[in-house]
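Q: Two folds, back to back.
A: First:
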Amino acid sequence: MREAESIDGLAALVARFIPTELFKTKRGTRNRMFTAMVTFTAFLGQVMRRGSSCREAVRQVQSWFIASGQEAPTGNTSAYCQARNRIDLDLIGKAFHHLCTWFEEQTKPADLWYGRNVKVVDGSGISMPDTPENRAEFEYAGGQRKGCGFPTGKLLGVFSLATGHLHRFVHGNWKEHEISMVRRIIAWINAGDVLVADRGFCGWGLMALLLRKQVDVVIRVHGRRTTSSHLDHWDKPQRQGDWDEALWAELPETIAVRIIRYQVEEPGFRTKEIVLVTTLVDAKKYPDEAIIELYGQRWQVELNFRDIKTTLGLDILRARTPALIHKEIYMQAIAYNIVRGVMLGSARQHHRPIYRLSFKGTVDTLRQSTKLFGDTDAKTINARWADLLCALATDIVPYRPARSEPRAVKRRPKVFQKLTKPRHEMVVARSRRNKGTPNASKKTLT
């Protein structure tokens, strides 16, 4: 295992958060160049370099082996691709859970809100290559023709508000509702936590189930629900929907809630009034102003998803089979949490607010700096690590409270026809500019 760690600084970075014994080769298994540790590290490197190909990953592995004086693998990508398919999803899942445990151990009283951990939940869409295997599990989104769209999935994540790390996540078909998805990870939300969510999660059943687990919620009220008094009691709906009958019967007949209304006076904001519902009914212990401020921080989850999808590239996955799609999503989550772990170390050591550090800047710095943590002595590595954290602490994001900008694209896309048929059946009509091109349709020629 020491040899595996020495081949690359990225492996040494992983070892700071995940125990390397997890990747130890079992006795009696075939001796391969692409061990679990090498494959995991190369896969992680691909994730952290948006658009990185398998060829680039193999070239990187070759340079690791050559630098450490070992025989390098061939440039053929087949062995690496087979190793990615062979690596166990349970092993990757265990690595992710070890990362989450590391963050829980770093929690300090100053990170708590009124002595409680705050989690923020939200969902987002993802797409993937259009292959028969992916279509069979994830399907097209509504309105897409076969051969003209892409299979679409949904990712739901629970983030820590204090550190920004991804606490737990689930993914599935785009048709699955977010409330049913959050029920799949409710076991990982601990008693005493406070869950903050947008109005898509405003359902009586979810709130009652969380209360049963001694978890309080702060949720924006759904537009279809009418609210009146400051303190209210919401009765159990007669329709149980897709809830398990036995579980639904165990929920109480009514839950006590507190309604908070406030006006949004910031210029540029579309919403002028927000109505919140919370199970924190003690107004003296949890004042309205504190609840409003807490919900205002919910927007951070949108920025977290932007970091995962835009910076790391989770918005468009690249795997061509569902089995590898599941692994790619887990690797994206691991990469995101490792970056957050490095940011947390820098914020703690140099007394900076973690949300003032640049996620993109941290990713760029790690891409260029991991080579410094390769095969060298521990004293030198620790000194370089301290320099890295110091450099990250100087990359501060400007403080722009209540910033509002239109969601509009400035750069115009290329003017091409939309694909309305499978590509091999599509005939592109010619315009005056491409007159005489071989792709012109017969209708246009006449």
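A: Second:
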Amino acid sequence: MSVPVELDGVEINVVGGGVTAPQGFRAAGIHTGVKRQRKDLSLVVSDRDCTCAGTYTTNRVKAAPLLLTKKHVDLNQTVRAIVANSGNANACNGPRGMADAVAMVEQTASVLGIAPEQVLIASTGVIGVPLALDKILPGIERASQALSPDGGADAALGIMTTDTVPKEVAVKCNGFTLGAMAKGSGMIHPNMATMLAFITTDASVERPLLEAALKDAVAKSFNMISVDGDTSTNDMVLVLANGASGVSIEPNTPEEQKFRQALDYVCITLAKMIARDGEGATKLIEVRARGAKTVDDARLAVRAITTSQLVKTAIFGEDANWGRILCAAGYSGADLVLEHVRVELGDVLVFDQGMSVPFDEELAKQVLAQKDVAITVDLGAGDAEATGWTCDLTYEYVKINADYRT
């Protein structure tokens, strides 16, 4: 099934398959026993050498798998595989943590017959607990035997932690395909969070262009979501390009623009899935700041609103408390002209020209009762804009995180 989507005149077809939708990729997701019931190990493999680019958490405390992956990506060599486990972050485990990450990489390389430097690794789950290599290493061999061009869905299941649903998307555009999967539900904050995202494409893209396109896409997507204001130790986004489609993406061409639009779509779609699946969430909140002096200012305002716990609790309570939204925009650091500021909840105007305006409280409550809630703030200072996403903050979020380890 293909669903056409038009973006700035470019037609993108949304298809199934996730990370294995592009040609030349296989994947698997299995249960090793690290988690009690759910799949907890994923493997994504390209049949051809790939160029690769990545972005990583800004947290100064970085987990061993992330450091090892970054080292391999920085070698600027070709990549063939990603191995990822869930249920254990392998973070803050001292020298053993790095030794265990290396063991996972070497086992993956051995069963696939490739160089260890061609393997990227990710882990997610509880911090400070050593990996159960006695379960994971045999699991990697079993996962290699289960690899399939139809294995994208299983792989998306294998990286989930507190996620309630798997997150995957794939698109076809101009002869090439992009596929992706992600995990993330809590510890989500702008500038990366407890999230992993793996993107594959059968286009041929040289490393500098792939890095630039990914950096720009992440800035518009994963760096514009928040669930709870915490940034984790393991977060990364990786993109692998194997060229199997025969389509080459060259700089400063119409093809580059189409590739960037497709990559933006994939990343924004996954980012919204993560925000919607925030721990305990009942609503996806889209915040748009327009009328900003610069894009950076617009992003500052969006981030302040999406990370405001007072805003998030008000939306959960379906309370049209526009003062909390205005307050967050005011302390965000973005320039604004209060006499020109407007605040809208859906189509309901609640604040204009420096003062409250009469509005129908019941209509506003109906807007806030929806599963998708839109907040628009016009800063009255320019023409730039930005959009971000968050979720409401609920009683269930506290319950989930009060006994996460137990």
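Q: And?
A: The first helix runs from residue 64 to 74.
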